[in-house]
Amino acid sequence: MNRRSLAMLTLCLGTLMIVLDTTIVNVALPSIKADLHFDDANLAWVVNAYLLTFGGFLLFGGRLGDWYGQRKLFLIGMVAFTLASLACGLATSQVTLIVARAVQGVGGAVVEAVALSMVMAMYVEPAERAKAMGVYGFVAAGGGALGVVAGGILTQAFSWHWTFLVNVPVGLVVFLMALKYLPKHEVAADKAKLDVAGALTVTASLVLAVYAIVNGNQLGWLSVHTLSLLACSALLFVAFVRIEQRVATPLVPFRLLRGTHLPIAGVMGVLWAAAMFSWFFLGALYLQQVLDYSPLAIGLAFLPANLIMALFSISLSAKLVMRFGTRSTLASGMLIVSVSLLLFARAPVDGQFLLDVLPSMVLLGVGCGMAMTPMMMAAMEGIDEAESGLASGILNTAFMMGGALGLAILASAAAARSTSVLSAGDDIKAALTSGYHLAFYMGAAFALLAAGLALRYLKQHNTLESTVQSD
Fold it and tell me: pTM (2 decimals)?
């Protein structure tokens, strides 16, 4: 294995740690609740504290990588994430665990924001880049479902502490590999040029938006609390835009959004994440609360999708992109995701795995494996290397915000439908199934809309596709 491949392995391992941590803890939540005496409201902050800082610092982390060096920021983020994981694993109080989770989110945001841009910088030839993005895309898309398997095994075999402590040795290995294998050429930057005002306003805006979203179901979407937070987030974002228009070295140069696919890729990223969360989180709830699957069985049920996703992401997706271009491959993948969610929306109360679950899992693996690589390539196409960290941060922020907002909307819709069906006299499992069906239909609509946007807006200026057509 050559040095570049080892660098790629390092970045993928780092990204896998971050992605796994968004879901591996979910299986351990009941054990954490019992051990540290959480109530339901406070327990949500074990997840929300991580989502809050992760979503809020993605954009800033990517820009810091451009200004101060992506390798340096990757190392700093990995240290913060690993030490925070150790603190989580050793936590004996609610406050310690929640604060450590917040620090985990900051470290994870920095690592995730710069990793994609480093992959793009290492692979510049179209065929190699397509293959590399396929590998990275599989890690980013499949790691979440893999976390459920790991969480089930660690929690059942050892304790909830090990869902965090497992990050410590892995983080140490990734740090040492990064020191040895990641490219050392850094982007020169003048620290005096740091757009502090822009960084503070956009980070505060994103944090408030994520906070409002993750608490929307609990506090009410039309409550004064939620609407006030969203209004403050909007005002801060307006202030950020005004600042960016006036400063000499803006955090986000708006020219980056013109003449590239980044804006439309960001919108598709929001829709894709919303669709995926309807499958992953609500699909897991269907398996657990309706079909009575154990945590480990849920993880194993998602395994076929992960294996197929790996096959497409690592090899087939790159070949499809080179043959048909990013537009056609992305649109086809999202269309398959939509069909798979429609299949899941017909799963009955007494569903059978082979008949009602596996077909949807197979199609989801195919669709996600096809779509993730061209979506990332479309977002980064035409972006200067000096601003690739920022572009990566924008795309990852879109994924994060789409996932949080999508989950909140879909969970709220599912809960409302279930309550209505339950009040009509049906039993609890029938009510839950009806609610999940509605969420899957909505997720399918999100994926279908993403496919339509790809066909509409990625027709022109697609370098890979035009290269193929001219050959």
Answer: 0.75
